[in-house]
Specification:
The protein has 328 residues and is mainly beta. It has no helices and 33 strands.
């Protein structure tokens, strides 16, 4: 078409063109200081503007209006109607519902994604769902943000179902209550209100305001309880803490186990520092460490050693040759 006087773009297209390179070549447009308008002007039944490359549609701009799909942008004509002011740029779907169907929703790319909550967003990935109002899935695969204001950053098979809940990533993690958070890892669950699991494997924070830092198979079920890490530890008392170790239990209110293995702080304000198989069963009782020691009495203290007992306030039973002074 170059150098042809009064050449025009034909309804069936043109041949022999040379692409505009910024200096020479052919283009659709004009050289005037005016906007370029591409329009469908039938006001009785407004139609979209479509863009094709080869034999495939690559973009569609839907006409203005007061209801869906007005003002929306979509990559193709497949699937259900897009939401009002929605943007759907994904490449593929296998069901009609995998579209940006909520009003003001965005699907940035990927495929097989569903943004059905108003103001929801999916950045990309595949088989992701943002069904909560103002929910977000950044990417990954088969993630679901169903709570209002919920977020899943990425990973796979993660779910943020609580209001304002968040899963950063990882695999098969669930933030199931309001303001709950799972940072990452695999198989973790934050089901208590405002609870947190930072990471690790198959940890659970079910108490309100509870926290599990990491490790595996740990559980913080008491209100404001904490398990720092380790394996198979449980903090079930209100404001109880297990810092780490294995198979430790803090089930008394305000109780603490610092670490070790198979230790238990079962009464209010009781403490086991570490060791193995120790029990602080009395109020304000303490076992610092050692093995198989128990402080059952109120204010009872066992510094360490093996199989020492504080049976009740002011009375002791000793083993392994240690001398312990008991309060009277």
């Amino acid at each position: 078409m170059t150098n042809v006087t009064n050449a025009a773009w034909m309804l069936q297209g043109n041949s022999g063109t040379k692409a505009w390179d910024g200096v020479t070549g052919d283009y659709v447009g004009h050289s005037d200081a005016q906007p370029l308008v591409i329009a469908t002007t039938n006001t009785a039944d407004p139609q979209p503007v479509q863009f094709w490359a080869g034999n495939q549609q690559v973009l569609q701009l839907n006409p203005a209006g007061t209801k869906a799909p007005a003002w929306s942008i979509q990559r193709d004509t497949g699937g259900d109607r897009r939401g009002h002011y929605a943007v759907d740029l994904q490449a593929a779907r296998d069901t009609a519902t995998q579209v940006a169907s909520g009003d003001y929703t965005v699907i940035g790319g990927g495929g097989f994604n569903t943004a059905s909550g108003d103001y929801s967003t999916i950045g990309g990935g595949d088989f992701n769902t943002a069904s909560g109002e103002f929910s977000t899935v950044g990417g990954g695969e088969r993630n679901t943000a169903s709570g209002e204001f919920s977020t899943v950053g990425g990973g796979e098979w993660n779910t943020a179902s609580g209001e304002s809940s968040a899963v950063g990533g990882g695999e098969r993690n669930t933030a199931g209550s309001e303001f709950s958070t799972v940072g990452g890892g695999a198989g973790n669950t934050a089901s208590g209100s405002s609870s947190t699991v930072s990471g690790g494997y198959e940890n659970t924070a079910s108490g309100q305001y509870s926290t599990v830092g990491g490790g595996s198979s740990n559980a913080a079920s008491g209100e404001s309880s904490t398990v720092g890490g380790g394996k198979q530890n449980s903090a079930s008392g209100e404001l109880s803490t297990v810092s780490g170790g294995s198979s430790n239990t803090a089930n008394g209110p305000y109780s603490t186990v610092g670490g070790g293995q198979s230790n238990t702080a079962s009464s209010r304000w009781s403490t086991v520092g570490g060791g193995e198989g120790n029990t602080a069963g009395g109020p304000w009782s303490t076992v610092s460490g050692g093995q198989s020691n128990a402080a059952w009495g109120q204010y009872g203290v066992v510094a360490g050693g093996y199989s020492n007992r504080i049976l009740q306030y002011g009375k002791c039973r000793l083993r392994d040759g240690l001398r312990t002074k008991c309060r009277s």
